[in-house]
Task: structure prediction
Amino acid sequence: MEKSKIKIDIKNCLACGGCISVCLQDAIYMISSKANLDDKKCIRCGICIKTCPIGAIQESK
Ligand code: SF4
Ligand code: SF4
Result:
């Protein structure tokens, strides 16, 4: 069974850093001015989803 995952739409990412600063798991990091997510560290708390000003972070099945 596939668990839901957090996905970042990097095409729209503004590199504001908001998601990185709120993630308590250190699961998001910047590559070439785009936010990237480490699935192994992410606990799917959803805080980053609420933080992104442009809705670029979503939960997907
Ligand atoms: S869902 Fe939570 S743990 Fe996962 S990247 Fe977002 S803030 Fe970090
Ligand atoms: S909060 Fe959204 S726009 Fe800002 S760095 Fe994270 S994904 Fe990109």
Remarks:
- The longest strand covers residues 5-8.
- The beta strands are 5-8, 28-31, 34-37, 57-60.
